Amino acid sequence: MFEEIDDFDEAFKRLLDEVLEFDISNPFEDVEKVLCIEPHPDDCAIGPGGTIKKLTDRGIEVVYLCLTDGSMGTTDESVSAHELALIRRKEEEESAKMLGVDRILWLDHRDTELEYTPEVRNEIVKIIRAEKPGAVLVPDPWLPYEAHPDHRRAGYLGVDAVAFSQLPNVARSDLYAGLKPHQVDVLGFYYTAKPNYFVDITDVMELKLRAIRAHKSQFTDEVWEKWEPFLRTVGLFYGKKAGVKYAEGLRFFPALFLHITPFAELV
Ligand SMILES: [Zn+2]
């Protein structure tokens, strides 16, 4: 049928609608479990926290996978890295509960030193095979001007782990341990500048802010003076695009478009 088409716009639309059957109207429709991957123990709340609350309210299980220990996140010289990691673990448990999340998995790589290696990627592959999530959320590694290496690498690690978890020859030792290759149906990006799906979080925005503030070691009164207006402005930014007050913006792709595609940005 495509040999009759001589126009890109028509081909693009029919590729999405008829060939790939890409429907972005409700990406979580058939999802029972979501794995939300975060570089640090506060990013799931700051990024898609409102979306997570909406999902757990619908009975969808959300599990966090925190890649680092958060041990560098302080300007207080009296707190050691080890102490801070313990404090942040507690804060994250409390914050997660507020959003309906009971389980947090930790890889405990050192904050600021998250490396992209096949070993770290395969740690995530193993968790995906064990947890079998229908959807995985990761920070968008292509966010312009993102300066934190842990964030960029968490994005790449997450995307690649999702792509590879279905390939039996990747980390084949998992199979000997009784795990099966797992195909993740839905991959979503948060912290994205190119959202193509919006969640109206107006009614849970205050709860989201409280869940973020539960990370007391990160948000002292002084820090919060700047962060609360910043976070509200981010909510309004996505809200303006969505036609509501506060929203979160996510980005979804057909899996085929996450490789060698010159027009992936158009989705
Ligand atoms: Zn972070």
What does this structure look like?
With 267 residues, this protein is of the alpha/beta class. The protein has one domain (31-254): LmbE-like (Rossmann fold), CATH 3.40.50. Helices cover 40% and strands 15% of the residues. It has 9 helices and 7 strands, in the order αβααβαβαβααββααβ. It has helices at 8-19, 43-46, 49-57, 81-98, 118-131, 149-164, 173-176, 205-213, 221-242, and strands spanning 33-38, 61-68, 103-109, 135-139, 186-190, 197-200, 247-252. Strands 3-2-1-4-5-7-6 form a 7-stranded mixed β-sheet, sandwiched between helices. Helix 4 links the parallel strand 2 (61-68) and strand 3. Helix 4 packs antiparallel against helix 8 (205-213) and helix 5 crosses helix 6. The longest helix is centred in the last third of the chain and has 22 residues, at 221-242. The protein binds zinc ion. Residues 39-40, 43, 151 line the site of zinc ion (ZN). It comes from Thermococcus siculi. This is Diacetylchitobiose deacetylase. GO terms for molecular function: hydrolase activity, acting on carbon-nitrogen (but not peptide) bonds, in linear amides.
